[in-house]
Amino acid sequence: MYGLSFMVKNKDEKKFFEYTVDFANPAKLNLELNQIIEERSLSNEEFDLVTVIHHNRQNTLVPQSLFDSKHAQTFLSLNVKLLSGDSVYYEIVNQSDMVNVYLPLQPLEINLNTLKLQHRHSAGVFLEQIHHIQSKMQNLPVFEIFLNVFPNDFQIAVFKNEQLQAYNHFDFEETDDFLYYLFFMMETLGIDETKSQIYMMGVEPDHDLLDQLKTFTKNVNVLPPLTPSQINNYLL
After folding, report:
1. 143-181 pLDDT per residue, tens
2. Angle, to 10 degrees, between the axis of helix 122-134 and the axis of helix 228-235?
3. From CA 95, how far away is CA 27, in angstroms rounded?
4. Tens digits of residue pLDDT in 90-134
5. Backbone phi, then psi, for 56, in 5-degree steps?
6. Are residues 28 and 73 in the same domain?
């Protein structure tokens, strides 16, 4: 949504490097990405896996019990306006009964020798990371609200007794927008604030957004953001 974060990991040497390409059109993104590949002589290497994680709002979650891959496009069309030539992808969200159906961004032309190219969506990564966090927690509250905050948008997942109740992805410009979407969802889902905890990723402890939120509720916890290195450590 904002451009491209690009990371390479060598598991044997336990090191990685990462770059960020600012927002640009697909042609410029491809150009800058392949310049990075050339500068690092990566085209001469062989990669076991290349994972492309798409971050956008063009996705929907479907229970596995209802999902049929033949109708993936139909499921997504209920929430997203699709064009006739759009390719729809889907992924099973690990440790969940959900299938994430999504519309990827225009495919990148990656000039790499790879044994496997894997496409993912940030919603699936977010939900799997939540399960990873929950598995390490004790005495979980009845309601858990997880927020993954980016510069101008955020993902939200609400759980009741560790079962997913709702997922959404909102754009925001001002703090008031952020607070409106959050508390509107809480009110709609009938969440009892005394039995809930909010877990935020993507913000520092002194972030203004966090300060504003704490004026309305004290049940707020800050978790490490899903940086490229953390996504890497979790996925691989």
Report:
1. 999 999 988 899 999 999 999 999 999 999 999 999 999
2. 70
3. 36
4. 999 988 889 999 998 766 677 788 888 889 999 999 999 899 889
5. -155, 180
6. no
Q: Does 108 map to a domain?
A: yes
Q: Domain total for the chain?
A: 3
Distance of CA 76 to the CA centre of its chain: 17
Looking at residue 227, what is its pLDDT?
Answer: 54
